[in-house]
Amino acid sequence: MAESPQHGAASTYRRDAQGTRLRLLDAASELFAERGYERATVRDIAARAGANQALLFRYFGSKKALFGEVMARGGQEQLRTTPAERLFEVALRGMLAGGGGEGADRSLEVCLRSIGGSDEIADALRGLGEEYAAVLATLSESDTGSLRGDLALSWLLGIGLMRVVVGKEPLASADPDTVCRLVVGALGGMLESLPQGGKADGESGGIPE
């Protein structure tokens, strides 16, 4: 049965609206990761998405709500879909990629660039960090598991800060596979359930020489 003209037009509108919404999310993710929440303007987000500001407010209501959806699509999705034992490496690789891969999650870059923003944004970032740390804490059976989870998250964010924000060499241009192998190998001494398959031959479970 053929679609009526009205039904066909409505379907096209929904597809177009969904496409525009996704473009706005992609553009916001890129700009928040590049500039942080405060410096990424609604005007620039809309321009990068090829849309107008009115549509951004129609679909998301506010810049803060858009930020929340970006974080939910990135960090929250990663938390939901990544096994605990793979979370650290997956998050680290995503950050080391620097947004170079299509569809790469940039939520931790967004966190790094947006630290120091408004209290509402700081609360959102703190909440996401607590969730990451809580998952990482499950990889240790020690009484200090929660502290170990916080330390692992601090290392992850510290690496991101030095590579992504500061651009400290040689870390800034280091091969992601090498960084992951060294960091995950060393971290295994603190999070006992972290997979150690990435260690190079001859490396111990402690800090690599």
Features:
209 residues, mainly alpha, 9 helices, elongated, disordered C terminus
Rounded to the nearest angstrom, the distance between the terminal CA atoms is 70 Å
What is the percent of helical residues? Answer: 55-70%
Q: How would a crystallographer describe the biggest sheet? A: none
Number of strands: 0
Low-confidence stretches: 198-209
Rg, rounded, reads 20 Å
**What structural category characterises the helix and strand content?**
mainly alpha
Shape: elongated
Strand portion: under 5%
Q: Give the overall pLDDT as a whole number.
A: 82
Secondary-structure element series = HHHHHHHHH
Give the number of helices. Answer: 9
**What is the oligomer described by this structure?**
single chain
